[in-house]
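Q: What does the assembled structure look like for these inputs?
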Amino acid sequence: MRINTTKLKNLRNLLKKNKLEGLIITDFTDTKYFLGDFFHEDESVLLITLKQIIVFSRSLYENSFKSKYKEALFISEDKNRPAALVKEAKKLNLKKLAFDENKELYSAGKLYLKAGFKESSSLISLLRTTKTEEELKLMRKATQISMQAYKNIQKYVKVGITEIELKRKLEDEMNRLGGQGYSFELMVSFGANTANPHHLCDNTKLTNNTAVLFDWGAKYQEYCADMTRCFWFGPKAPKEYKTILSIVKYAHDEVVKKAKIKMSGAQIDNISRSIIEKAGYGKYFTHRTGHGIGMQDHELSDISQINEDKILENYCFSVEPGIYLEGKYGVRWEDCFYMTKRGIKQIK
Amino acid sequence: MNEKLKQFQKLLKKENIQAFCVLDNDSIRYLTDFFFYSSGDAYLLITQTKAYCFTKKMYAGDLKRKAPYLTLVDSLDIEDVCKKASKFKNKAFDSTLAPYIQGTTLAESGFKTLPNFLEQAQDVKTQSELKLITKACHISASAFKIFQKQLKAGMTEKQGAALLESIMQKLGGQGLAFDTILAFGENTANPHHHNSDRKLKQNEPVLVDFGCRYKGYCSDITRSWWYGSKVSKEWQKLFDLMKDTHDYCATLAKDKVKATTLDNAARDFMDKAGSYSKAFIHSLGHGLGLKIHQKPYLSPKSQDLLKNNSVFTIEPGVYYDGKFGIRYEDTFVLTPKGAKILTK
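A:
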């Protein structure tokens, strides 16, 4: 297997720009970003320099790693991988190395500082924010699987089924269609549970005339889909439910129309927030408009009040305004998008 | 208040720590049974009598219902944690679980670093934790019995793994403890094989390493068997040896016995049968709970002790590249009467 050359090239350009000789990568997803699915969590440390890729991991993997990745150097270390890295860097006379202050553990960070390396903030996260065409393709595939599965399981939405049972139907269907795991713990909520934006599925049964909300997404080759749909089950939808659902859909669609390249996350958040505020439901919109997405369902490029950073080309994020009336019901409408020179485009 | 949080506050008293800051999601879930969506969504500051939870507004409603004993603070600024703790002198955080950037702020504000403190605290399980682990183990073990009958020649490793996973879900499992490993034939020789599209054939070995979760708690089992009636003699001999090693090691587990004792004993036992320990290329076992790997580690260099009510695996295995591998694993709880198998 080849380590993705586009991603490597982009990282090395970033290293040169920051006058670095190499970067220490500990975060599990960051490791997978370069190597694909090989190690389990907390089992490897990766050092990518301008010339080399060095992997520090359990001796158990030595043979299978070497036969799979020819271009990387494997160093067996079962106990203290940061210490082994410091030793190797000394041997190679590498000094200008950096570690990620947001992702590195305090104990390892201290060791690296002592060795003369320095903190950097979010280099890989930044790199991961801009998606390559290949990554977009995988995200589209994940989204298609998720949406098709949702359509296929609508026949099970019947009085008496529990949230957990319905969630399982959705999971099984996504897997059947080629999904490879879930972007997050899927959410199927009935009734007042829909008013909790992060409800955990339980044994609540579906009854007639109840709010229903699905927030779900399959993974495909490590890339996430994320979407939310909600509807009233039964003929007697309360007037207020219909009202808040149309406000949220309108807020969602206005973001799609008005979000432009180089707007900040806060500016885009404002498009939907101001609509919901004007409608009088501002304090019931208790979360951000969206979050970055890629290999993880929450990444940088937040669409929130506190993100002043510009949203640039091929940044991917969700747009998911919501209104939650505690004790009654809640609504949210969500799709994922990527930024282009001509506005945002749905990943579908 | 949550039983585990109380146990943790007792530990703080014993260690004379007035305040402890918890930053990682797994430990927060352990102490509160509350599931935060992603790491960084909450911090805890635990004193000997109180527990502050720094988090986002959107969690407030759910937290008030499910964890009313937490004092909520609407902030995720680590400086606010420092301010709240400013009156305490003896305060600490776990340097092996804290991100560097927040750890630095805490350290500058007088927090001491205590490596591995939280993992140590999770070593001995409470009765309610044991119930959940037992349930997760029962689901996995029952699922295996169904799976073994349904696995047929012609199925791929990926299809077989999906089948087992869906049986576990049907029996009440809530997600996976880790990605299921299902290996056929020569692939069994790789202890951490990635499932492929290789199909199962008649008369070859199968190895499956799997476990579901129940309310976050893990189970872990490995089974190896020969598919078909023409069992290789060499395979059978080694299978029996692994099973015997597993059973023998389990009898050695006692309160306050060193974890290395069991790992060493496994290697000696294999060598008495004919220097097989060279093919035993991993450690004998590991603790588990909310995380699939935690203390006590049953490895050659471990410094851990086994304790009553700790939960761990015993999983001897031998691997012959290009031929086959065998592993036999159960999850155990240590009781005053000895180690008890949970995965059956």
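Residues 133-152 of chain A form the longest helix (20 residues).
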